[in-house]
Amino acid sequence: MDRLGLLNTLITALDAGSLSRAAKRQGMTQSAVSQQIQQLEQLLGQQLLLRTASGVRATRAGATAAQHARGLLAGYAALEKDLDSQSDRLSGTYRISVGTVFGRTFMGPLLLQLRQKYPDLDIVMNTDDRIVDVVRENYDLAIRAGTIGNNEGFGRKIAEFETVLLASPEYVKTHGLPQHPDDLKRLSFIRYNEEAANNMLRLTRNRLGVDAEVRVGFTASDPQLMLQALTGGMGFARVVRMIAEEEIRSGALVELLPNYTPAPKQVYAVYPSRNGLDRCQEAIISGFLDLVKAQHPNTTTTSKPLELITA
Q: Which SUPFAM superfamilies does the annotation name (predicted)?
């Protein structure tokens, strides 16, 4: 009897809030999930879930069982990690979430190379600029730039990307070239949807910080859409330099206030276990940073630990 599997189904059902969502996450039918919950309840001799029209929630016994189940599953994951560290091969299924730009530019080619090197790996990569919860959505690793959001899990900052203020020559010709941060508030700001909504940009000059007020005119959830809005003359934006290098070189975009430095874009690796990274996660992160440094030598990378909101 796969008791760990039954406990995992219980945790998934509670995290998902319903048996149907739990079934979707585990790749099985809702009736199979229900049968596993019933089997676990018979095994423990207690009702674990209360089933309502809106979903499921834990009984008192279910909450106790879930607390112990999380510890048992974490311990088993640690056991697998310790045993895996004694092997030279990487195997198993790894679910990875990464932003669309990182996916196309770095992670896609990297994972193809990793799969060729380790044929026993089953890699599932999802490119999505939405901030995922690695615990609740069953991801082994997420690479995220900017804000992380309210996630359960742990992680660390792994890099910083230089950002610049950009606009099209046509937009500058029409609206004038800003000479001071105060001039930005008369321009239309194109904002990435993950950024703070307080309509302020933090700039630095000679190690002194300046808060520049901006007037948001367009918000985009895709970095490529932001570039299209910029080249189309919709306003100015704070953009990671490496994403816009081609447009800057060609003159399609020009840098604003070059003597002022916008805040860098932070890059994080987020993972579900407090036990740290396993060998596959370490290989992916290391390969990602190697590719970034090879293509963009000025990028700052780091391995400084950073604990996020815990499960």
A: Periplasmic binding protein-like II, Winged helix' DNA-binding domain
For 206, the domain range is: 163-263
CA 41 to centroid of chain Cα atoms: 36
87-121: pLDDT as tens digits: 556 667 888 888 887 788 777 888 888 777 778 88
Looking at the structure of the chain, the number of domains it has is: 3
Q: Specify the CATH number for the domain of residue 42.
A: 1.10.10.10
* Direct distance between the N- and C-terminal alpha carbons of the chain, in angstroms, rounded to an integer: 27
CB 266 within 8 A of CB 160: yes
On whether both 93 and 74 belong to a single domain, the answer is no
Contact criterion met (CB below 8 Å) for 203 and 262: yes
> pTM of the predicted model, to two decimals?
0.63
Do 212 and 138 sit in the same domain of this protein?
Answer: no
Q: How far apart are CA 91 and CA 119, in angstroms?
A: 8
Beta-bridged to residue 167, according to DSSP, are: 254
Q: Report whether 156 contacts 304 (CB < 8 A).
A: yes
